[in-house]
Specification:
Length: about 200
């Protein structure tokens, strides 16, 4: 009697294992029949709107993130200007140039770097067809700042790699933001194209 009961339980357990295994396989298997059908006009509208919403959110997020990083860099540069104006050559990265240029030239270079960052932020956040002009203009000013610092760094007795951020910082910030703006514009253009591909269809 006990043996019969045990055999029945064993059979049930094996069957349940097989069924659960088939269920697991079904989760990862491809569909065997084609469920493709034209999408209803309303469904198309909802899909495109959801993509537009996601794209807008992503654009605001990344523009905000990079603008925030640039603002932090601007705050740091303002601190550098303050230190150089009231306590000349106390900052190590300025002290390297003590015998190369005068204090006000260093301050002017930092202001030019600030201008580069602010123009980049303006181009990144400004919603108009001219926003790219701000970005490319900031890149040009960043290049002038980079040439200034690199020229004086090469005149030092020893090239200081630890202050490479002085020439590279503003220029790379502008360059990265131009690239981010390009990617976001490509994404936005793809969503606009998708809206243009919408067709009239009413499901019965």
């Amino acid at each position: 009697m006990i043996m019969m009961v045990m055999q029945k339980l064993t059979r049930k357990w094996r069957n349940s294992r097989r069924e659960s295994q088939y269920d697991e396989d079904d989760k990862f298997s491809l569909p065997t029949r084609d469920d493709g059908r034209p999408i209803d006009t309303q469904e198309q509208e909802e899909l495109v709107r959801s993509l537009e919403k996601v794209q807008t959110q992503q654009s605001l997020l990344w523009r905000g993130v990079f603008s925030g990083l640039l603002l932090c860099y601007v705050a740091f540069l303002i601190y550098s200007i303050y230190q150089q104006a009231y306590y000349p050559w106390e900052l190590r990265y300025h002290a390297y140039f003590m015998y190369e240029v005068d204090s006000w030239t260093i301050i002017a270079a930092d202001w030019a770097a600030i201008l580069t960052c602010l123009m980049t932020i303006k181009g990144l956040l400004h919603e108009s067809k001219y926003h790219r002009r701000w970005l490319w203009s900031s890149c040009c000013i960043g290049m002038i700042v980079a040439v200034f610092w690199l020229n004086h760094m090469l005149r030092l007795a020893k090239f200081r790699w630890d202050i490479l951020w002085l020439p590279v910082g503003p220029l790379s910030g502008a360059g990265i933001c131009i690239y981010i703006d390009h990617l976001l514009n490509v994404s936005s253009e793809e969503v606009r194209k998708l809206r243009g591909y919408m067709y009239a269809y009413k499901a019965r």
